[in-house]
Amino acid sequence: MEFWQLRELRATHPAWRLLAADHAPLILSFLAQVFVRQNRRSMGQAELASKLDDYLFRLREAEGQELFPKSGKAYLEDWARPDTAYLRKYYPRAGDEAEFDLSPAAEKAVDWIGKLEQRQFVGTESRLQNLLEQLQQLIQLTETDPQVRIQELRQQQAALEQQIAELERQPVLSVDATQVKERFFQVEDCARQLVGDFRQVEQNFRDLDARVREKITLSDQRKGELLAEIFGDQDAIADSDQGKSFRAFWALIMSPQRQQQMADWLQTIFALDPVRELEPDDFLRRLHHRLLEAGEKAQRTSASLAEQLRRYLDDQAWKENKRILQLIGQIERHAVNCKQNPPNDPDFGQLDDTRAAIDLPMSRGLFRPDRIAPVTLQSADEGDGDFASDALYDQEYVDISRLQANIRQSLQQRNQVSLSELCEQFPLQQGLAELLAYMNLASQQDNALIDDAHNIRIRWQTEDNRWKQATLPTILFSR
Known about the structure:
Elements: H1 3-12, H2 14-19, H3 24-36, E1 43-44, H4 45-63, H5 72-79, E2 87-90, E3 99-102, H6 104-115, H7 124-142, H8 146-169, H9 177-218, H10 223-239, H11 241-253, H12 256-270, H13 273-278, H14 287-337, H15 400-411, E4 416-418, H16 419-425, H17 432-444, E5 448-461, E6 467-478
Antiparallel strand pairs: 1-3, 2-3, 4-6, 5-6
Helix pairs in contact: 3-6, 6-9, 7-9, 9-10, 9-14
């Protein structure tokens, strides 16, 4: 870090400006309480202003009425200005009320202030152990000689066999409470940092989207050249290290087995006596839900780039069609003006052919004589069909309320259920029609997730004892 670099950061970086602000204790405490501790990704202006007014009321009662003279709404507008950028103010697609989200810089400031608080102890042993394990994994990952890898795996196998032998000789184990607390703090820090990193991922996607919008507005390139450059930027962000890591994370967190495994592990950890002594908050208990919420919001942010490209194409097509209509209107007005006084020269105007005249010899068809269809004068008689028409009126009706009741009943015992688990608990009665009704409900509900990248197979038995199956995307219903 150089002197000039730090001076530039002090003048431009929002996190540094926040730490140096006069009302930094108010801003940091309120943002940490509303966004970080509750893991709120965004909040409407009315709700956030109401919470800030209540917070200011309590502070004024304790510190004096003249401490913070402005209203909560006025403070929110100040914190969302471009020169402060502690909050991000935007308008969602659905609704006309502004929403606020915590900026990545403000979250870094909140996290840094939180680390200044004195902990019970600093876990140096667990940090060193984690460092050694990471170094070992990095060396194994970069090793290209198979013999060296085989030798390392055999050493690990021998170490595991030695541990098994020691457990067989001495089955009673003792738990070191200090090591448990150290590793719990380390897991909690890693989880908080992971959830907080998603705001930076969203900001990177928004920066890319802003650059694309500016390029569309200011560019004078042809539409094909501009789109090729824009799609190149989109492929570059998708193929970058951050894009690949995010796709791998999303595929991992969307796995129902991984979610259940994480929930079981957390339940086991919170049942340990050393962890209960720490009296931890509820952050880690709902970690998989917090990761799903953060990842889903990042997915929606990245999808806005494709939506912007589609709107650009629609606008460009509308502008081109409008220009064509204007030219046609000008031609029609000239024709009306020349109606009473037409030009004497018959070749007064020329119109270029709109397409090339291509005549390929090999594309000519063989000669075929015309077929003359015989025409007879005969009246048509009305007849009666000798068949049953019940099939035209025998239509199946899927009771949507019954399917919704199945989903609610299944979610009473768990926080999330997949469509495959739902079909196992409530077997399909109407086959494919009922399965399509479940998919329609998932597309209409906000608390349902559809993962197009992973497919599942669902089987059901028909009335004639035949088995059928369908392949469809992974669908998760949650509370």
